[in-house]
Amino acid sequence: MLQHVVQLCHLVTRISDLYPELDSDLMLLGAFLHDSGKVDELGYERDLHYTDVGQLLGHIVIAISMLDAKLADLAESQGRSFPEELLLRLKHLIVSHHGATEFGSPTVPMTVEAIALHHLDIFDARINQFEQLLRDDANVESRWTQYHPNLGRKLFKGTTDG
């Protein structure tokens, strides 16, 4: 998970020169926080599993609750609050990062930063997924992986002799 967040932050940094209209500071904060709720969504006692709170609320709702709690602490200790519109934009990055309601987002991306973060998140996740499938493939003698029903395809491995 940490590797994914770091990669996503690197991607945001890399595209900031190409798309100067994007608020890269906001996107970096969104990239850093978008999956923070997974800390409580998932448990790790013997193996990876969903906690009760994870099953019932999901990491997006948990992340918003965590953010609200931290900002309340900040307001109490500093005597000032986080800028309202900036907080709204940040929360939107978190709640829309899955890109569609059918994929778990309460809403779809409605800002340029949100659509950019969504696509960068998916990009990083898919690259890592494909690399993992290629690494773990049991079809060692074949130039193709086994068929992956969740992807609807086999993956081409090619040859390793150059």
Question: What are the defining features of this structure?
Answer:
single chain, two-stranded antiparallel sheet, mainly alpha, 162 residues
Number of helices: 6
Main beta-sheet strand count, sense and barrel state: 2 strands, antiparallel
Total domain units? 1
Strand proportion: under 5%
Secondary structure class reads: mainly alpha
Q: Could you name the ranges where pLDDT drops below 50 across 5 or more consecutive residues?
A: none
Order of helices and strands: HHHEEHHH
Mean pLDDT: 94
Task: Give helix % range.
Answer: 55-70%
Task: Describe the protein in words.
- This protein is an all-alpha fold and 162 residues long.
- The protein has one domain.
- It has a two-stranded antiparallel sheet.
- The chain is globular and about 65 Å long.
In short:
With 162 residues, the protein is an all-alpha fold. Helix content is 57%, strand content 2%.
Furnish the topology, listing elements before pairings.
Blueprint: H1 2-15, H2 24-33, H3 38-41, E1 42-43, E2 49-50, H4 52-78, H5 84-96, H6 112-136
Antiparallel strand pairs: 1-2
Helix pairs in contact: 1-2, 1-6, 2-5, 2-6, 5-6
